[in-house]
Specification:
The chain has 246 residues and is an alpha+beta fold. The chain has 4 helices and 13 strands.
Length: 246
């Protein structure tokens, strides 16, 4: 996994473009406010981000984890983590690379406990990398991204990537800071057949890394926007410790 992780990061190449305020012309008011807040003028438009993070993940109960993640937009992502559960370490990864999604987890890094792949896992993982564009906002400057808004606080993002069409709703404040993000995502959080379920999170803190201001403390889960999110859907609480762009 270490080799695959490094290979994905090293395969990223800079776009050669920089963020220019002229890119905001003809965009809705709230969209311009958001993009200007999250990308400093003159910042190279990255094609990949490498994140270090820690937090808690809910596996019936909440357990601490630490992780690294690479998002290489043209290829996908790898999230490699260690979960500490009752004195044991579970090591593994979730990934979507070159059109294939998978989950591979082992007790102590040796004994397999989760191994999943196939069309449903791939489609769900593709949705994950699409909504995580908020950690790589340079990709939202692409000419194929369509922005609309119901009002200046609610930008809507539509684009097709990784064989999926993303319909992402954002909530921003008066300064352009992201407060919440959500979208329909393919999954089976209730253990039933896979179907589209609203997925998203609340962004509670942010930091700036290399010209990008990204959410760094989030509460994430399924059934976002309804009572079930708080009671059963939230499963991931994360703090971003560092981010590097390429």
């Amino acid at each position: 996994m270490h080799r695959s992780f490094e290979n994905l990061w090293n395969s990223a190449s800079p776009s050669g473009r920089t963020f220019d305020a002229r890119m905001l012309t003809r965009l809705p008011q709230g969209v311009g406010r958001y993009l200007k807040h999250v990308i400093a003028v003159g910042t190279p438009l990255a094609s990949a981000v490498r994140l270090r993070m820690h937090g808690q993940i809910k596996l019936k109960r909440w357990y601490p984890f630490s992780a690294e993640q690479v998002i290489c937009w043209n290829r996908g992502f790898i999230w490699a983590a260690v979960v500490r559960m009752r004195g044991m370490q579970i090591r593994g990864s979730d990934s979507f690379v070159d059109g294939r999604g998978s989950m591979r987890w082992k007790l102590f890094g040796i004994l397999p406990i989760i191994s999943a792949s196939g069309p449903d896992v791939t489609r769900s993982a593709a949705g994950r990398v699409n909504i995580e564009s908020v950690w790589l906002p340079s990709v939202l400057c692409d000419q194929n991204v369509r922005w609309t808004e119901s009002d200046a606080s609610h930008p809507h993002i539509r684009f097709t990537a990784h064989s999926e069409t993303a319909e992402i709703d954002c909530l921003i404040d008066e300064n352009g800071k992201l407060k919440a993000v959500s979208m329909p995502r393919w999954g089976n959080p209730d253990g039933t057949a896979f179907h589209c379920v609203n997925f998203g999170g609340f962004a509670e803190k942010e930091r700036t890394f290399g010209g990008y201001t990204i959410p760094t403390q989030l509460r994430v889960g399924w059934h976002f926007g309804g009572d079930k999110f708080e009671s059963d859907g939230e499963f991931f609480r994360v703090t971003i410790d560092d981010a590097a762009y390429r």
